[in-house]
């Protein structure tokens, strides 16, 4: 089932092309949309919401064409929630008043709007504070109000534009947990943007990476982080073998295995199941202690670093979405 589809979608402003022939097919679940600042993430969301027309190409949301006219646009808004990137909350009203208002705007009757508001604010973790004016809230609380107003009319899909912006590491973790639960508890599909690839690794079922308005990669998170056929092996030293790692490497190479070393870790190419036995027997035969022998998993960021070396666009443009997005230093979840 397709939740969001775009076909050759472009958006040109007088001085910049924000989206450039973007073709996407996104299914249900949590999808992370990653790209550096200016990659075109917000532009894509605005087109999908019908707030901004595309220059070229087509797009549909929940099977509805975003350019089909006002009746379809209204139908999309009924089914879709939107959490904008920038601060957009009125400071003088309380979270309850604001979210009730947004629920009423979405067409809910007064009683249902009040009930849904109470439930949604509780779900995002706002309790007694919900009666105080929003102007006195912390950034984390404001982000929660923005999330609540996107969810209050029980949409099938929400667009969350940089929901972790401005949050400290604990606040980020909480927000990412909440986003995950939006899908697992309510079955709502999520398109969440970030310029940090690492933080979407844990939260998303699917990751789409764009750079300069173009699609760089779209695949399921498990494809990104799939287990490779490489074993990571670490051993102790002994009196007989003061450099156990080097000794084991020599022994395994002698047994015909492909090995690379990274400090005390040996990466052994596990061509088949027998490789485990060969390594175990070699370690036991040498009398070394086996600290670890495990299948190596790729992290998303690692795969992008590999891709960067091959990708012609990146090589040409230098400071790109993937290099920025893959920067593990920027994300508390990258390691
Ligand atoms: N209304 C506009 N007029 C002119 N240029 C625009 C407009 N909106 C966006 N752009 C440009 O289009 C490009 C994509 O912007 P967009 O906001 O979609 O990026 P983004 O990936 O969401 O980045 P950010 O995280 O910084 O918002 C940028 O170069 C931006 O300057």
Automatic annotation (TrEMBL):
Residues 304-335 are annotated as: Disordered. SUPFAM superfamilies: P-loop containing nucleoside triphosphate hydrolases (SSF52540). Pfam families: ABC_tran. PROSITE patterns: ABC_TRANSPORTER_2 (PS50893). Residues 4-237 form the ABC transporter domain. Residues 315-335 have a biased composition (Low complexity). It comes from the Bacteria. Keywords: ATP-binding, Nucleotide-binding, Transport. One of its GO terms (molecular function) is ATP binding. Belongs to the ABC transporter superfamily. This is ABC transporter ATP-binding protein. It comes from Streptomyces synnematoformans.
């Amino acid at each position: 089932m397709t939740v969001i589809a775009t076909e050759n979608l472009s958006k040109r402003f007088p001085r910049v092309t924000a989206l450039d022939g973007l073709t996407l097919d996104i299914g249900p679940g949590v999808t992370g949309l990653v790209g550096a600042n200016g990659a075109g993430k917000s532009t894509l969301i605005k087109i999908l919401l019908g707030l901004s027309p595309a220059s070229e190409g087509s797009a549909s949301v929940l099977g509805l064409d975003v350019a089909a006219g006002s009746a379809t646009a209204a139908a999309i808004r009924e089914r879709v929630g939107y959490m904008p990137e920038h601060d957009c909350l009125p400071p003088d009203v309380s979270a309850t008043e604001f979210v009730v208002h947004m629920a009423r705007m979405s067409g809910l009757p007064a009683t249902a709007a009040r009930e849904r508001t109470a439930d949604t604010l509780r779900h995002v973790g706002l309790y007694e504070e919900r009666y105080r004016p929003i102007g006195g809230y912390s950034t984390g609380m404001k982000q929660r109000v923005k999330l609540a107003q996107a969810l209050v009319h029980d949409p099938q899909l929400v667009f969350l534009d940089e929901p972790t912006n401005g949050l400290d590491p604990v606040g980020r973790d909480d927000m990412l947990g909440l986003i995950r639960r939006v899908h697992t508890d309510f079955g709502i599909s999520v398109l969440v943007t970030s310029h940090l690839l690492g933080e979407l690794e844990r939260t998303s079922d699917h990751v789409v990476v764009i750079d300069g308005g173009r699609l760089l990669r779209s695949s399921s998170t498990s494809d990104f982080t799939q287990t490779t056929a490489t074993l990571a092996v670490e051993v102790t030293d002994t009196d007989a073998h003061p450099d156990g790692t080097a000794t084991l490497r020599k022994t395994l190479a002698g047994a015909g295995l492909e090995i690379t070393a990274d400090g005390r870790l040996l990466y052994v190419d596990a061509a088949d199941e027998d490789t485990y036995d060969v390594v175990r027997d070699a370690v036991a035969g040498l009398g070394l202690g086996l600290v670890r022998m495990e299948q190596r998993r790729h992290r998303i960021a690692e795969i992008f670093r590999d891709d960067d070396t091959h990708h012609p666009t990146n090589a040409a443009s230098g400071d790109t979405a993937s290099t920025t997005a893959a920067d593990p230093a920027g994300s508390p979840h990258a390691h």
